[in-house]
Every structure is written in C-alpha cells, then in structure tokens.
Write a structure and sequence with these properties.
Blueprint: H1 7-15, E1 19-24, E2 30-35, E3 41-42, E4 47-53, H2 57-65, E5 68-73, E6 86-95, H3 101-116, H4 123-128, H5 130-134, E7 136-149, E8 159-162, H6 186-193, E9 198-204, E10 210-214, E11 216-217, E12 225-228, E13 237-246, E14 255-264, E15 267-277, H7 282-303
Length: 310
C-alpha cells in the first residue's frame, strides 16, 4: 500500500524546487536526471507527481517498462523549505499517456507559478511555448518507501516510513560486453562535473528500486572518477548513473552534466555523457525551452511506431 508520509517529510516534498529522479535501464542500470516536482503531491493517497515532456520519449518508455523510480530531495536552494533533511522517495510510477489541458491549467500551472513566476503570454509566446507547456504529461508515483536522513550529506542511519529498508547490497553485475573501462574523456568529464554544486549517483538496488546518494567526485584517473559519499556505496562492479547540476532562482542558469557508466568499488567509469547549460537570462531560457520542446516532440513523433492497417 502507498505510504501516507509524515509531516516532517511533507515539509520537504512541498518546499524543494528540484529533485533528482532515478529510473532503471533495460540493462539493469539507472539513469538520474533533475526534475522540478513543484510540490505536486497527495498525502492522503500516498502519491507524488512530476511532469515530463512527450519529447523525452526514451525516458517515458523506460519508466513505462520498469515503473520503479526514486526521487532524492537533496537541494534547498530557491525553494520554500530551509531544513537540512535528505529525503529519498521510492515508488511505482504511472504515466498519463496523453496531455490533460485542464490538469495542466488548473493544477500544474498554479503550482509552477508559485516556484518559477508567471508564464509569458502573448501571440508569440503562446505559439513558441505551446509544446513546452501543453505537451507535458503527469507521472504519478505511488510511494512505497521514504527514507529521511538528518543532514543533506546522508550520513548515519535513516528514519524509514513505509517498506523496510533493504538489509543487503545488490550483488555485483557482470561487466558490459564492450568492457567496463571509460568510453569518454575522463579528464574532460571530471572538469565539467566537479564545479557543479550537486552530484548524485544512482544504481539498481536489491529490491528493484533505484538508490540515489549525494557524492563528491574526485581527481580522475585511468579507471575513471573516484566518488565518495557520507553514505556507503555498493561493493563490486555495477551499472550506474551520475548527475552533476546546479541552478539559480526559478531554474534560470541551469547547468547539467549527465552520465551513464560503470561503478566499481568507488570509481566511476563514464560510458556516455550529455549535458547543457541554460541561459542565465529568462527570455533566452524560454526561447531555448520552446526550441528544445518543439524539436524533441518532432523526434518523438518520427520515432513512434506506425499503426498497423490490419
């Protein structure tokens, strides 16, 4: 049954501007990315909600295939809660397959405005941001476990609400067919990731849910980037995702570096890398958002299977 969480947890879920979303890959790894949950939640139903664009087809398909997800509330900047708690939420996601304009207008819009200010309106902006605002779908998460650490570094034992915390580590995984060594320029990857304020590492836990922890990337070497954490990291080798990001008020000036790769006893070997740096100017940011939403939706529509005529 879904968890009806405590007041302590609710203050965090209601107040943080951003959280780290982790979801599973078909190969048994995890991807971690930043989302803005904007306080969308129903405590009585034990349900959290975030929205995503239909242009992010791969993310939607992976969550649809493996609905176990995690959200780590790890950052206090520019939100409404100033406590020091680190909160990990794990649950099963349900994707709303089609945009619901009434829900976007009546629920998402007012919530987003309280965090990020009023939307731009007018003939140009309504056209330019149409896909960005209207081609979004809610993802509802039926919460099964919430873990709360007293500090944002995650040190110590958590208070757990809902399902019991796993008592064992997941077993090591077999190395990828193409090898576990880094496949991107490690020096460059570390140089881009280390200056960013937040770094999060995710992997598939023994119970099938992603685990997410804050980490500190170290000096790169031939095997990859050493990562340390106040929380223990799993022993042995496994697929894992790494996210480094920071942002300014209202998510202006967002900077993101996202990796998939191989974690082996505290050393992360990046295999793929992507990222972006959003403009620090609100107008330029909206222009970029509108462009990326239009482009992403076009790609998603081209990639969609053609219905059979039989």
């Amino acid at each position: 049954m879904a968890v009806q969480w405590s007041e302590r947890a609710d203050h965090v879920l209601a107040g943080d501007l951003t959280a780290a979303l982790a979801y599973l890959t078909p190969a048994g790894g995890a991807v971690v990315t930043a989302v803005a949950p904007i306080g969308l939640r129903d405590r009585e139903r034990g349900e959290l909600t975030f929205t995503t664009s239909l242009g992010f087809g791969r993310k939607i398909e992976r969550i649809r295939r493996s609905p176990q997800v995690a959200l780590l509330y790890h950052a206090r900047e520019h939100g409404f809660h100033d406590g020091s708690e680190l909160v990990l939420v794990q649950g099963k996601a349900r994707i709303t397959e089609r945009p619901d304009q009434a829900y976007l207008d009546d629920v998402v819009g007012p919530a987003a405005e309280s965090y990020m200010g009023p939307p731009r309106r007018g003939v140009f902006w309504d056209h330019w941001l149409r896909e960005y605002y209207s081609d979004r779908v809610p993802v509802h998460v039926d919460v099964e476990r919430i873990a709360i650490w007293p500090g944002l570094d995650g040190a110590g034992e958590p208070d757990v609400e809902g399902a019991a915390w796993p008592a064992a580590w997941p077993p090591p995984q077999a190395p990828p067919r193409n090898g576990a060594a880094p496949r991107v320029d490690v020096e460059r990857a570390a140089r881009r990731a280390r200056p960013l304020h937040h770094a999060l590492l995710a992997w598939r836990g023994i119970d099938g849910y992603p685990a997410v922890v804050p980490v500190d990337p170290g000096e790169p070497g031939p095997r990859g980037i050493p990562v340390t954490s106040a929380r223990p990291l799993p022993p042995g080798g496994r697929r894992a995702g790494l996210l480094a990001h920071d942002y300014n008020a209202r998510l202006i000036g967002l900077r993101v570096r996202q990796f998939t790769g191989w974690l082996d006893d505290g050393v992360y070997a990046p295999h793929t890398e992507q990222g972006f740096r959003a403009p620090g100017n609100k107008t330029l940011l909206l222009l970029a958002n509108g462009f990326m939403a239009k482009r992403g939706l076009r790609k998603a529509r081209k990639a969609a299977p053609v219905p059979s005529s039989t």
